[in-house]
């Protein structure tokens, strides 16, 4: 088999071009498209950190081995768990929103629990409202926020009793959370 000069050049150049092309891409990581829920979760973490930082003087941010984020200064601290950020549809649009729960401490005592309502506006989460409430968010489904509240004050010995909790549903209307029904209520005197 006798090759003419153009064919020989092509056969010699082809492996060289391929090896150069492959080596140029060797160090690059493939870019994966980030899922909207994960993108929202990251945005929500950044917004919560910034919100807490703005409440403190000379704030320091840290994360522990369990992933909990602490934002603190010498007098006060905020703690939140990024894994417990609730994502879903809060308002009437078709963009996924988020809720972050921040627990504030003065020393070792819980001073308040704040919930940050983050609505997705044009593809970006924005802090619309924060509200103080000693409640645990259970779920966000079909634009209904279901929460568990204690029917006794924190200072009561019955605060953590299972029968002293109520499940309440809220809906976001005109910039506010409005109670729509009580799913169940129990309390002891």
Give the secondary structure arrangement, pairings included:
Blueprint lengths: L4 H20 L11 H20 L4 E4 L5 E4 L3 E5 L5 E3 L8 E10 L2 E13 L2 E9 L2 E7 L2 E7 L14 E9 L2 E10 L4
Antiparallel strand pairs: 1-2, 2-3, 3-5, 4-5, 5-6, 6-7, 8-9, 9-10, 10-11
Overview of the molecule:
The chain has 189 residues and is α+β, with helices and mostly antiparallel strands. The protein has two domains: 34-132; 135-189, no CATH class. 21% of the residues lie in helices and 43% in strands. The strands form two sheets. Strands 1, 2, 3, 4, 5, 6 and 7 form a seven-stranded antiparallel sheet that branches. Strands 8-9-10-11 form a four-stranded antiparallel sheet, with no helix packed on it. The longest helix has 20 residues, at 5-24. It is globular, with a radius of gyration of 26 Å. It starts with a helix and ends with a strand. The model has no long low-confidence stretch (mean pLDDT 83).
